[in-house]
């Protein structure tokens, strides 16, 4: 069809009398109405009255375009232009014809001529803006569209194009204003409604977007027109809110109304349907939905398949799907960027680097590629370079929640809490509710010791997750982080812990027990056992430091050791542990079900979790019961709440009689300390004199993380400092690198009457020997409560520094009791209550001889104690593992221990 040029464009004010207007206008009007026969009638009159004229050539060209023959139309329009140059009525169809033939540059040149000839004609600027959008010339598009709406401010179509141009120019707020103005003039414009809906949805204003999409959908249904665009938009909104039933209904509606031959429409709806099925863990069904598109795939379809394969743990298939996407859009920088992101999600940093290397310098300036580059730098721990790139991205895309979240993480990692917090809040304002962002936000608040606010962030995310009709493993970390954080707060009771554990168990009630497939292991009670250890901390981490000496000491004739690793960033310690194990299996990028399947396939007899509710744990994999006997040890100071764990490995000091009612797992109490510490290096730093000898005053200290310093700890330490007026307090933790955080802690002490000059705060020491040497500055270490130190207490004792601890009513508050009992110092250094804690600290501060005696004997005492006896721990662990194995061999099936019911009650099996 010819363009809808107004009659003003072909009147004599534009110098067109040579076109013989009456006949031409009649023919042109017929052409506009789609009546080609009527147009040809007037064309015949023109050919008779003015053969060879511009009007004849123009009308012939317009008719050729109306019939879809741009090739035939072009020479006719060029002839018309040559006969009557600089006439907008000729230039406009000529420009559009060139566009149809792919000559965008030529079309742009013609449109510039047209706007110069008729600078007051809004339609010419509208067409120039549309062309600029096709060419990716966002600045020109905005400029041309601005001129169009200035000349014709009440034309809805021009305002719609103006909005598109503004959005492309990253002026989303202005675009939305333009579309709202367009909607005021044409409230039933489906194009405007869809654009407006899509844009407000991108800002997280989902309720408003839903209203616009629903209106567009009703208009299209009433007109009997295709409905797949608003259906897809509504489905994406419902998926965002986890409104699975609504998403399912609108997608079924859209698919039912979209014919099989409408490949584009069905493709978008089926990809959205696959997303719905994927998010509700119906992974096979998601792949089945996409099979309708076999033979009609585009890159988006292959990308959707890849996402499903990733969730299934099928890394190879995911890579193949992405490669197919690249075959369909070879060299497309957006597709390559997605491939790079997928490689990073799969831990393939080298592959991501290789993909980015295929892009030109110009392509690397594109937004999608920049996002991939920024994430690659982040994964490579190039934090400053990554942050600079994210800041550049946010200048162009201020509401990009992924960029906001990753920039927040970098600032959090650098202990720049104020900026990190502000970035998280911006992302939340933009509508992001991704669990990764919520975890970063809450972790920042936890580091700032703003416990109640951190809990609220996690609980908000958990409530969102529990609205799902199916359990979603990506949200389980919210529960785990909340469970972990509760241990730091002195106001949290054991009943509080139990309540959240019950909710965690209920959250996972849809997981299959997988008990229909029997374990195939021989029930020989005395054979060599295949023992698996499951952890994300097979790296330089406190867990690995305590696990390494045990791994070195196992009797390999009794046990065969397999490590199941979820380490994202392996290091030298990873390599060391890999070399000490019989087998090392990387399950980092496997789904929980696939990880459990691999463990079951390996016929592991006893599986031992080392993480509990700590970062990147695989507790959910254990819910599939991949091993006959499943235990937990070391990494987490409390109950997991899981129904599929047969025991917690502890000792009589950490878990004395009377505590079992608060745990979902039976206790397996070793006859010795449940840990073994390995002294650092072959050339350890010597033990120094107490610093008070030279300083003339006692220095108390703690190197625990700041969030272990509860309100009760601040009060107790302040009482000690008041009772010993000349004393000082030295605190070291990574959180104190942030000046705001340090000032906030000092303010709490100031409220207790302790001047800031008496407290020294130090940030983290990256060099390990420098870190150990810092203990030379402390006379007496003060343990935190309700969460005791573990590594810090062992390091302090190794450096000769005694640690005063307070015995509590749960495992987290009794680890210090176990460590000090192992070296025989429980009578001197374990307090029974806070008053006793304060009294003992003051007593030590007044006795230089006691400090010196303990200091100079402590390393030898520790070396000779069970705490440094890894061989003894290995024998005790082997015995405990063997006992549990024999119990299973004698049982008719898997044991559950205490299993949570989902009505808020608990049922008990045998405790020990």
UniProtKB/TrEMBL annotation:
SMART domains from the UniProt entry: TPR
Domain annotation O-GlcNAc transferase C-terminal: ranges: 524-675, 698-872
Domain of life, per lineage: Bacteria
Pathway: Protein modification; protein glycosylation
GO terms assigned for molecular function: protein O-acetylglucosaminyltransferase activity
EC number: 2.4.1.255
TPR repeats (start-end): 122-155, 299-332
Key words of the record: Glycosyltransferase, Repeat, TPR repeat, Transferase
Top EC class for this record: transferase
Family: Belongs to the glycosyltransferase 41 family. O-GlcNAc transferase subfamily.
Protein name per Swiss-Prot or TrEMBL: protein O-GlcNAc transferase
UniProt organism field: Insolitispirillum peregrinum
């Amino acid at each position: 069809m010819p363009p809808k040029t107004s009659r003003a464009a072909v009147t004599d004010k534009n110098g067109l009398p040579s076109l013989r207007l009456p006949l031409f206008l009649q023919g042109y009007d017929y052409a506009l109405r789609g009546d080609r026969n009527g147009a040809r009638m007037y064309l015949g009159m023109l050919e008779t009255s003015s053969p060879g004229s511009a009007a004849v050539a123009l009308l012939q060209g317009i008719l050729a375009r109306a019939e879809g023959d741009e090739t035939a139309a072009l020479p006719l329009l060029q002839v018309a232009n040559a006969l009557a140059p600089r006439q907008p009525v000729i230039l406009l169809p000529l420009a559009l014809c060139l566009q149809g033939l792919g000559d965008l540059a030529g079309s742009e040149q013609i449109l510039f001529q047209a706007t110069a000839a008729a600078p007051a004609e809004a339609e010419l600027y509208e067409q120039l803006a549309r062309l600029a959008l096709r060419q990716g010339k966002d600045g020109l598009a905005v400029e041309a569209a601005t001129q169009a709406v200035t000349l014709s401010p009440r034309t809805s179509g021009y305002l719609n194009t103006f909005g598109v141009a503004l959005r492309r120019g990253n002026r989303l707020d202005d675009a939305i204003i333009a579309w709202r103005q367009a909607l005021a003039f044409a409230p039933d414009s489906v194009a405007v409604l869809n654009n407006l809906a899509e844009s407000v949805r991108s800002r997280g204003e989902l309720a408003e977007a839903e209203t616009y999409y629903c209106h567009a959908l009703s208009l299209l249904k009433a007109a009997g027109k295709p409905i797949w665009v608003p259906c897809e938009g509504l489905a994406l909104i419902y998926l965002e809110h986890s409104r699975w039933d609504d998403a399912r209904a609108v997608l079924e509606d859209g698919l039912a109304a979209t014919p099989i031959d409408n490949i584009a429409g069905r493709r978008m709806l089926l990809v959205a349907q696959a997303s719905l099925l994927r998010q509700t863990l119906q992974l096979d069904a998601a792949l089945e939905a996409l099979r309708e598109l076999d033979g009609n795939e585009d890159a988006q379809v292959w990308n959707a398949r890849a996402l499903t394969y990733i969730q299934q743990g099928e890394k190879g298939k995911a890579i193949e799907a992405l490669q197919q996407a690249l075959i369909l859009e070879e060299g497309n920088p957006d597709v390559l960027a997605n491939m790079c992101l997928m490689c990073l999600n799969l831990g393939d940093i080298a592959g991501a680097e290789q993909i980015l290397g295929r892009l030109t310098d110009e392509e690397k300036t594109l937004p999608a590629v920049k996002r991939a580059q920024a994430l690659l730098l982040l994964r490579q721990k190039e934090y400053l370079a990554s942050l600079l790139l994210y800041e550049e991205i946010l200048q162009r895309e201020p509401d990009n929640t992924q960029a906001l979240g990753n920039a927040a993480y970098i600032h959090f990692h650098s202990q720049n809490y104020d900026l990190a917090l502000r970035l998280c809040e911006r992302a939340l304002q933009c509508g992001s509710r991704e669990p990764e962002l919520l975890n970063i936000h809450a972790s920042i608040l936890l580091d700032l010791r703003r416990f109640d606010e951190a809990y609220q962030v996690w609980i908000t995310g958990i409530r969102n997750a529990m609205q799902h009709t199916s359990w979603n493993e990506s949200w389980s970390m919210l529960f785990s982080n909340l469970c972990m954080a509760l241990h730091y707060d002195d106001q949290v009771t054991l009943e509080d812990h139990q309540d959240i554990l019950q909710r965690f168990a209920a959250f996972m009630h849809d997981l299959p027990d997988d008990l229909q497939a029997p374990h195939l292991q021989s029930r020989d009670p005395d054979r060599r056992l295949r023992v698996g250890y499951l952890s994300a901390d097979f790296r330089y981490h406190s867990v690995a430091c305590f696990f390494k000496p045990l791994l070195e000491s196992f009797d390999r004739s009794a046990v065969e050791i397999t490590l199941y690793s979820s380490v994202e960033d392996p290091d030298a310690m990873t390599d060391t542990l890999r070399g000490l194990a019989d087998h090392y299996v990387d399950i980092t990028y496997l789904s929980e079900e696939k990880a459990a399947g691999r463990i079951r396939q390996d016929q592991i007899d006893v599986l031992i979790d080392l993480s509990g509710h700590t970062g990147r744990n695989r507790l959910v994999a254990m819910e599939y019961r991949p091993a006959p006997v499943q235990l937990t040890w070391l990494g987490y100071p409390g109950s997991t709440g899981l129904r599929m764990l047969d025991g917690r490995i502890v000792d009589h000091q950490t878990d004395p009689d009377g505590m079992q009612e608060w745990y979902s797992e039976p206790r397996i109490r070793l006859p010795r300390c449940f840990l073994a510490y390995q002294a650092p290096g072959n050339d350890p730093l010597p033990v120094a004199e107490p610093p008070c000898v030279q300083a003339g005053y006692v220095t108390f200290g703690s190197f625990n993380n700041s969030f272990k310093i509860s309100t009760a700890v601040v009060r107790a330490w302040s009482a000690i400092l008041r009772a010993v007026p000349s004393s000082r307090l030295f605190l070291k933790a990574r959180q104190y690198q942030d000046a705001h955080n340090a000032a906030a802690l000092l303010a709490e002490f100031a409220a207790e009457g302790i001047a800031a000059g008496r407290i020294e705060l130090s940030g983290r020491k990256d060099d390990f020997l420098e870190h150990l040497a810092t203990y030379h500055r402390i006379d007496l270490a003060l343990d935190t409560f309700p969460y005791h130190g573990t590594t810090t207490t062992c390091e302090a004792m190794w450096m000769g520094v005694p640690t005063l601890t307070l015995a509590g009513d749960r495992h987290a508050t009794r680890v210090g009791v176990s460590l000090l009992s192992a070296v025989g110092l429980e009578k001197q250094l374990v307090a029974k209550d806070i008053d006793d804690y304060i009294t003992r600290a003051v007593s030590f501060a007044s006795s230089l001889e006691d400090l010196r005696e303990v200091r100079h004997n402590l390393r030898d005492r520790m070396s000779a104690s069970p705490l440094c006896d890894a061989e003894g721990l290995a024998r005790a662990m082997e015995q405990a593992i063997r006992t549990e194995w024999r119990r299973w061999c004698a049982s008719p099936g898997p044991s559950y221990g205490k299993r949570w019911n989902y009505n808020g009650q608990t049922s008990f099996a045998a405790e020990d």
